[in-house]
Specification:
alpha/beta; 42% helix; globular
Length: 251
């Protein structure tokens, strides 16, 4: 018996569970196929952006001007994810990566407060009205709460994906930066769907947490097929995963 947030109850029979698993497997296969088709042009143009600017967006809104600003969506999360992400942002030229769109879970007030404090500190001396134009905070539903069952998390993840589709469509970011919180999974999938189906040029960059030494996090494993670049902060990870890039400690 499964209890949803609405209070409704239903039972999941073995047959239904099989169909659900089959649907998820087919969705993953289709995702890999879409990524492969999308990546075909890279066979003829395999060049990658210079690592001199690791966060360089490949998709500066089709402007072709490297001096233009990059509309950046930053996914924050509880625990150490937000601290590491803000440390990474502190090393970037914020005047280029603007406006900044912070995405936080609705139950994560800590990250929203940290982002506001970070902006206030780094934009000190700017007029208030100008400060408000450089960043905004978007609140989304969590895909899965700590301790939530994997079956019910399918429904909450679907709800989060629908909200993420709206955020990505409305904000149309050039670049998405994330480092592991579960909130980034539906955001990146939404951006990938628009990239494949609607030809939107959103670059997705994942910076693995410094805490991951030997294996990638679950979020990184789920997003690997659709990421544009995956950075790790330990050489063992780059040796184990062929698509991972190691350039030292980034956060």
């Amino acid at each position: 018996m499964i209890s949803l947030a609405t209070g409704a109850f239903f039972s999941l029979s073995p047959v239904s569970a099989f169909h659900l698993g089959l649907l998820l497997s087919l969705s993953i296969l289709l995702l890999y196929a879409a990524r492969a088709l999308y990546s075909l042009p890279l066979l003829w143009n395999p060049s990658r952006p210079s690592t001199n600017n690791l966060m360089h967006s490949q998709s500066s809104r089709k402007r072709g001007d490297t001096s233009s600003t990059v509309r950046t969506m930053i996914v924050l999360g509880s625990g150490g994810h937000t601290a590491e992400m803000l440390a990474l942002l502190g090393r970037l030229p914020l005047q280029r990566y603007t406006p900044r769109l912070y995405v936080c879970a609705d139950t994560d007030n800590h990250s929203a407060q940290k982002a506001t404090a970070f902006e206030s500190e780094h934009m000190l001396g700017s007029p208030l009205n100008n400060l408000q134009k450089t960043y905004s905070i978007l609140v989304t539903r969590r895909s899965r709460e700590v301790g939530q069952s994997y079956v019910t998390s399918l429904f909450t993840t679907l709800r989060a994906l629908l909200q993420s589709l709206w955020f990505v469509w409305k904000e149309n970011p050039d670049l998405i930066l994330c480092n592991g919180p579960g909130t980034c999974v539906p955001i990146c999938f939404a951006a990938f769907l628009f990239k494949v189906l609607l030809f939107r040029r959103t670059t997705m960059i994942y910076v693995e947490s410094i805490c991951r030494v030997q294996t990638l996090s679950l979020s990184a494993l789920l997003l690997r097929p659709i990421l544009d670049r995956l950075f790790v902060q330990w050489p063992a990870l780059a040796e184990r995963y062929s698509d991972a890039e190691f350039h030292g400690r980034l956060a």
